[in-house]
Amino acid sequence: MTKTIFKGSAMLNPVPVVLITSKNKDGKINVFTVAWIGTACTKPPMITVAIRPERLSYEYIKESGNFVVNLPNSKMVKQVDYCGVRSGKQIDKIKEMNFTMESSKDITSPLISECLISLECVVKSITPLGTHDLFLAEIVNTHVDNTLIDYNGKIHFESADLITYSHGEYFSVNSKPLGKFGYSVQKKSNKDLKKNSKPKHKNKA
Questions:
Q1: CB atoms within 10 A of CB 62
Q2: Mind listing the pLDDT tens digit for each residue in 56-83?
Q3: 91, 133, 138, 197: which has the fewest C-beta neighbours closer than 10 Å?
Q4: Looking at the 3D structure of the chain, how many domains does it have?
Q5: What's the start-to-end Cα distance of the chain, in Å?
């Protein structure tokens, strides 16, 4: 296999694409699109978000110390793109995109009702890196639409029709899994063994 070597660059793809909402002390709300976001810790639940200091949301989040991560679906991809290329310094993106805002449970920043999953986050630290600053935040509440939760309480993220971002393009997440965590070492059940066993050939009379 022949490969081309590039100078070090952020080529981690695909990545989740989210809409982050924040609110400043004057009550103004902004939303912007973020793809550089990831899970950092389980207990307590923590995430990291890389934000350029010149973004309006950077100012709001640093001031309030909180924000909401909203997970959009493929039907919202145009709004997602718009919120990533337009600045809240010139226009009201919440109004332009006709988003319905809901109050969070424990923080000042609101969530987007049209998104089936939203995470309330409280900033724990901000680390300057270069072009971006890294925000480490704790997730204090997670809002999940009831349509994604079955009778056993399991959350079906595959039904949320989430989207990802890869090298300048948006892609929907395939709802059919390739496997599940631990399946490579899981012992096969008797049912699976019977299913995979070859049928016995009957002798012809």
A1: 16
A2: 999 999 999 999 999 999 999 999 999 9
A3: 197
A4: 1
A5: 54
